[in-house]
């Protein structure tokens, strides 16, 4: 029974990760591209952490603080996997849609909980591997270790998913508790995710500072770790000194919390999974309704869908947030930027063109319109059965994208025009070209989604994050922005000014947008009428 | 009001609807009966202009669904078998959205929402998000949305599924009233007792082909509709 439950969870996880890719009729090209993408992502993490641990290994070993190296690797792996699994713990354990169905079957609640915790363990083990593998390889290449040391290393990092899973279950339970009692779930989720994201960026931007501090003040850091995070000390000491007592103590600190959390949750799982706190019912009060035009109604509907989903907002419009932040970042870092530009001979007057391209790149990272047709899902019949031109429906999706992305983009353009010392012509380009890029991106998303719609999703996450349409739109438009930069640097630099190159780029984007508009109004209408 | 002429639709090698012809006149409630997979939903979707068909013609109040789909849709309302509605909207926002699409004035929509939500017992829940609705509440909302623009023709796929007895009764009353005002209703159902009592005409479809159609009294003769339907299951078509 337990094995059947674990197998089902595993199938669900595989389906979630690879849905749409592992279809029988998928072309070899798509499979190869997907495999390459996976290898790229995995290799990026390995290189990222390898690069982080490389400068630490020798200085810490030479200072007799080899254990601190492994303790830092353990702490990093712990934090990364905790961040990666806490939201999954919430949805997998406490908000799973099949809880009621499984609880209605003759299955002990503890089995259901255990099968889900096993899945979290697998997920955490994967995250830990991303850190442990490069940390171990870097260390043992530079400081060859004994077989016992390598076995101890494998042992502690195999045990590490246990305390991470225990803590992520507790935090997941707290999150579920907060989520059930709040009215503005979307807003709270977006804000907390953004705080988390910017905290991550801040820490990552200061990683070199922290690494230098560790190297320079190794003993002080070691004393702190030993005093405050004792399990991390035993993890490191067990590996560095092949100390069996430390390995045993780490074993206890890893297994005990996991066991305690499992026992507490299994006793209360039935109550947690079946208690519906819900929100207070809002009683409708009759009042005069307001009327609006068809286009406005369609756009407002798209926007309501967008703001109702934190996942959609956070994934499809990150460029909007960065566009708002960019001018302030330029103000704060202006001296350093000036210094960098002055170090690039021949590019001293490139601040304006670089700003235009930067805003275009940010516009290209927004893909609100790309999953918008797929997101109709089972509701597709509604608009198809209405007396509305399909072209207008499709364009409303592009207009919603523009409504969200154009104002922050224009704000960034105007702010940068004030901050940077630019000519009137480049100011015009700074305002116009990113705006045209946003229009292009909005229309491109709809055109691509019309070609690659995906209606058979269970969770909207699949349509937004894992659809071919979203990936093609974002990477396609990033390629569209990157291409003229490469062409200018390697081919056109001697033939025309950067301003002229950007002007031509803007005109081409405008022409492409006009063509896509026409396509959606004509051919798009015919395709949309019988989609699904 | 609705003319279906030699409608044929195939999925791969399977003929879902095969040379089907029906005529639904003004003032008629027309029942459409068949086993699961008989081709009812395919026919209904084709009539609503949301499914392309291979051959045949469909006219709504004189307009071809293929050549003039928007005019046809203006006169029609469709209620699908599963009321999948926008879960991110509240009930009232959904009704306002539908009203905006059909260009219903402020006064008209306010009056219609008050009338039909009151009749179906949904007024109190209109401020709730659709995601919090039960199946029956969604069905009621879909019915109100369908009635909001005074359609001449209502096409419904299993409209009584999920409705409570009072709402079912109210819907039947509304259907009768629409037909008495010159409208027409074409709906599929598995509840043969309802079809027998409610419909003026009935058509039975099997494996995409029409088995029998006509006035209810003529079709069932001296036996019940259930007996006619079960008898039709044994027929080769």
Q: Could you give a short description of this structure?
A:
Chain A has 532 residues and is mainly α. Chain A has helices spanning 2-18, 28-62, 66-94, 99-103, 109-142, 147-159, 161-180, 185-205, 207-216, 218-228, 230-240, 244-274, 294-308, 310-316, 318-332, 334-342, 351-364, 380-385, 390-419, 424-451, 460-465, 468-492, 498-529. In chain A, α2 runs parallel beside α9 (207-216), α6 (147-159) packs parallel to α12 and α13 packs across α19 (390-419).
Structure description:
The complex is a heterodimer of chains A (532) and B (237). Chain A is an all-alpha fold and 532 residues long. Chain A folds into 2 domains: 2-12 and 27-274, no CATH class; 294-529, no CATH class. Chain A contains 23 helices and no strands. In chain A, helix 2 (28-62) runs parallel beside helix 9. With 237 residues, chain B is an alpha/beta fold. Chain B is built from 9 helices and 10 strands. Helix content of chain B is 39%, strand content 26%. The model of chain B has no long low-confidence stretch (mean pLDDT 92). In chain B, the strands form 2 sheets. A 6-stranded mixed sheet of chain B has the order 6-7-8-3-9-10, sandwiched between helices. A 4-stranded antiparallel sheet of chain B has the order 2-1-4-5, covered by helices on one side. In chain B, helix 4 (106-120) runs antiparallel to helix 5 (135-147). The two termini of chain B are 28 Å apart. In chain B, 51% of the residues are buried. The interface between A and B is large, with 37 and 45 residues.
């Amino acid at each position: 029974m337990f094995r059947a439950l674990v197998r089902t969870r595993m199938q669900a996880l595989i389906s979630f990760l690879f849905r749409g890719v592992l279809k029988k009729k998928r072309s070899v090209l798509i499979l190869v591209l997907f495999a390459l993408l996976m290898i790229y992502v995995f290799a990026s993490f390995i290189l990222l952490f390898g690069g982080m641990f490389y400068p630490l290994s020798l200085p810490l070993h030479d200072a007799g603080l080899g254990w601190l190296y492994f303790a830092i690797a353990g702490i990093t792996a712990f934090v990364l996997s905790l961040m990666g699994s806490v939201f999954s713990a919430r949805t997998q354990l406490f908000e799973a849609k099949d809880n009621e169905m499984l609880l209605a079957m003759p299955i002990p609640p503890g089995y259901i909980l255990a099968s889900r915790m096993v899945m979290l363990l697998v997920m955490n083990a994967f995250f830990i591997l991303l850190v442990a593998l490069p940390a171990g390889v870097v260390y043992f290449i530079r400081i060859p270790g004994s077989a016992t040391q390598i076995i101890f290393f494998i042992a502690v990092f195999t045990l590490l998913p246990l305390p991470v899973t225990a803590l992520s279950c507790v935090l997941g339970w707290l999150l579920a508790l907060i989520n059930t009692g709040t009215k503005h779930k979307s807003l709270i989720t977006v804000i907390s995710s953004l705080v988390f994201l910017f905290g991550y960026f801040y820490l990552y931007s200061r990683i070199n500072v922290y690494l230098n501090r560790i190297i320079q003040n190794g003993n002080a850091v070691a004393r702190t770790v030993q005093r405050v995070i004792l399990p991390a000390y035993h993890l490191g000491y067990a590996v560095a000194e092949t100390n069996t007592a430390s390995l045993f103590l780490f074993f206890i600190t890893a297994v005990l919390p996991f066991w305690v959390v499992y026992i507490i949750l299994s006793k209360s799982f039935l109550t947690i999974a079946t208690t519906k706190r819900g929100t207070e019912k809002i009683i409708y009060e009759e009042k005069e309704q307001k009327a609006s035009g068809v286009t406005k109604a369609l756009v407002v509907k798209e926007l309501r869908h967008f703001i109702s989903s934190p996942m959609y907002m956070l994934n499809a419009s990150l460029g909007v947030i960065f566009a708002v932040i960019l001018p302030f970042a330029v103000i704060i870092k202006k001296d350093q930027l000036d210094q960098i530009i002055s170090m690039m001979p021949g590019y001293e007057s490139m601040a304006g063109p670089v700003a235009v391209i930067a805003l275009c790149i940010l516009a290209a990272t927004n893909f609100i319109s790309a999953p918008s047709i797929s997101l109709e899902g089972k509701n597709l019949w509604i608009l198809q059965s209405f007396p509305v031109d399909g072209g207008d429906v499709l364009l409303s999706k592009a207009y919603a994208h523009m409504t969200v992305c154009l104002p922050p983009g224009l704000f960034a353009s105007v702010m940068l025009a004030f901050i940077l010392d630019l000519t009137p012509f480049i100011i015009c380009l700074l305002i116009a070209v990113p705006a045209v890029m946003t229009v292009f991106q909005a229309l491109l998303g709809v055109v691509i989604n019309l070609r690659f719609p995906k209606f058979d999703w269970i969770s909207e996450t699949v349509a937004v994050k894992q659809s071919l349409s979203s990936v093609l739109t974002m990477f396609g438009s990033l390629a569209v922005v990157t291409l003229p930069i490469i062409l200018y640097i390697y081919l056109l630099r001697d033939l025309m000014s950067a301003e002229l190159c950007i002007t031509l780029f803007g005109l081409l984007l405008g022409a492409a947008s006009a063509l896509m508009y026409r396509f959606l109004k004509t051919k798009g209408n015919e395709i949309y009428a019988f989609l699904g | 009001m609705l003319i279906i002429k030699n409608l044929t639709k195939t999925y791969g090698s399977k003929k879902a609807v095969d040379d089907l012809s029906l005529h639904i006149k003004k003032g008629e409630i027309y029942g459409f009966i068949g086993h699961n997979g008989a081709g009812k939903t395919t026919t209904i979707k084709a009539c609503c202009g949301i499914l392309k068909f291979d051959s045949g013609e469909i006219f709504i109040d004189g307009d071809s669904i293929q050549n003039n789909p928007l005019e046809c849709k203006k006169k029609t309302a469709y209620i699908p078998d599963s009321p999948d509605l926008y879960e991110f909207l509240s009930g009232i926002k959904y009704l306002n959205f539908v009203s905006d699409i059909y260009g219903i004035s402020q006064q008209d929509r306010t009056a219609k929402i008050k009338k039909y939500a009151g009749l179906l017992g949904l007024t109190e829940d209109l401020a709730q998000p659709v995601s919090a609705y039960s199946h029956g509440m969604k069905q009621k909302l879909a019915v109100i949305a369908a009635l909001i623009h005074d359609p001449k023709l209502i096409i419904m796929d299993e409209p009584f599924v999920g409705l409570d007895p009072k709402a079912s009764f109210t819907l039947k009353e509304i259907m009768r009233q629409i037909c008495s005002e010159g409208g027409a209703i074409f709906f599929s159902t598995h509840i043969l007792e309802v079809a027998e009592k409610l419909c003026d005409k009935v058509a039975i479809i099997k494996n995409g082909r029409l088995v029998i159609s006509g006035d209810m009294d003529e079709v069932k003769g001296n036996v019940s509709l259930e007996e006619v339907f079960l008898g039709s299951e044994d027929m080769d078509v």
